[in-house]
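Researcher: Here's a chain I'd like modeled. Treat it as a single chain, no partners, no ligands.
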Amino acid sequence: RFKNALTFVNGQYWGIYETRERIDADYTEYYYNQSQKWVDMLAYWGGLTIDEGSDTAWVNLFNYIVANNMAVQSNYNYVIQRLDPMSLIDYFVLNTYTVNSDWLNWNTAWWRGRKTPNNVRWKYRLWDQDNTFDLGENYTGLPTTGNTADPCDVQTIPQFSNTNDPEIGHVRIFNKLMQNPTFEQMYINRYSDLINRAFYCQNMLNHFDTMIARLQPEMQRHCTRWSASYNTWLQNVTYTRNQIAGRCNNVVTGLG
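Model: Modeled as a single isolated chain. C-alpha cells:
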C-alpha cells in the first residue's frame, strides 16, 4: 500500500514522494507471522543480495527443478510444496503484461518463511517497476518493448531460459513448470482472468487517469523543484496512456 505525499525538508519544498510499505522482515512478520529469524529473503540487482537468512534452500530447489521432469506429477508436487506457483504466475503475468524491461537480471526479489506450522513457500515481491510500457532502458534485453511485445518473449531469451545460475533462473523455472499441464492451465486461466478484470482495458485506463489526476496539480511545482520539464512529463503521460490502450488489444493476440 502507498500514499502520495508532499514532502518538505527543514521547511524546503522537496516534491512528490510515495510513502509505501517496505517489503522486509517487518512486513513478513506483520502479514505472515514470519519474523526476521525465520525468513530467507533474496534480491538480485546485477548480483545476488541475501537480505535475510540464506540462499541454500533456493539453490537446492532450483537444481531439483532443472534436473527433473516437471510433467511427472510427483516431481511437480515436490516443487509446489516449496514454491508458491500462483506467486510465480502472477509475477510473470504482471511483468510481461506491462512489458517490464528491467527485471530478472535487475530488480528481482523473492522470499520464504520457515516458521511452522504456517510456513510460507517461496514467493515473489515486486521491486522497482519504472521501466514499463516502453519508458526507460531495456536492461532485460527484450526483443521489443512496445505494446506489441509478445508476452512469451522473455521465455526465449537464452540468458534466462538456459541458465544454470539459480540467482537469475526464474525463467528457466517457469519454463520447466510449464511442462506440467496443471501449471500451464493455471497460467492460462490466470492471465485470461486478469485480462478480463484488473487488466481490462477500461479498468486500466480509469486507474491511470485517477493517478494522473492526483499528481497533475502538483507536477509543475515538482518539476521546477528538480529542474525537470513539465511538458516532457505531459508527453510521457500521453505516451504511456497510449501504450496501455494498445497493450489491451495486443496482449490477447500475443497469447494466442
